[in-house]
Design brief:
The protein is about 20% helix and about 15% strand. By secondary structure, it is an alpha/beta fold. The strands form two sheets. It has a three-stranded parallel beta sheet with strand order 1-2-3, with no helix packed on it. Helix 1 links the parallel strand 1 and strand 2. The protein is globular, with a radius of gyration of 16 Å. It starts with 9 loop residues before the first strand and ends in a 15-residue tail after the last helix.
Length: about 140
């Protein structure tokens, strides 16, 4: 909202997937803000969160593996070039393999947002969005 987002930027919202959210929060607020800044169709939004039918523009969600699992969103830093292939349903963090490996080696997951109760249990046992974000049975 402070004007830092410019035409051509890619906005990354991470740690909103099934584990990180937990529960995949809906991204209508960020997409509405983008439209309110008259940047709809001018910027892309990548997230491991989810979208509803009210979403407009280049909004790519349900990204798996999610950032909380060490997926590619986890290691994006400001200024990284990102290539989006909408027909191919892929995005590429356009940095060297060496940089990717170094970032992943240094990466540690953030502390869970919720540490007790049913939502914490859900976050610990939920599958990835590409597997349906369902609770897996406990390990015996």
């Amino acid at each position: 909202m402070d004007g830092a987002i410019r035409k051509g930027d890619v906005i990354v919202i991470r740690f909103e997937g099934p584990m990180g959210g937990p529960g995949m929060r809906e991204m209508l607020t960020p997409t509405s803000a983008i439209a309110g800044m008259d940047l709809n169709g001018e910027v892309a939004l990548l997230t491991d969160g989810r979208f509803s039918g009210g979403t407009r523009g280049a909004s790519i969600g349900h990204i798996s593996p999610e950032a909380m699992q060490g997926g590619p969103l986890a290691i994006v830093v400001d200024g990284d070039p990102i290539i989006i292939d909408i027909p191919g349903k892929t995005f590429t963090l356009n940095i060297s393999e060496k940089d990717i490996k170094e970032r992943l080696a240094r990466w540690t997951p953030p502390m869970p947002k919720i540490t007790g109760g049913y939502m914490a249990r859900y976050a610990r046992t939920v599958s990835s969005a590409d597997e349906g974000a369902i609770v897996r049975p406990p390990h015996s």
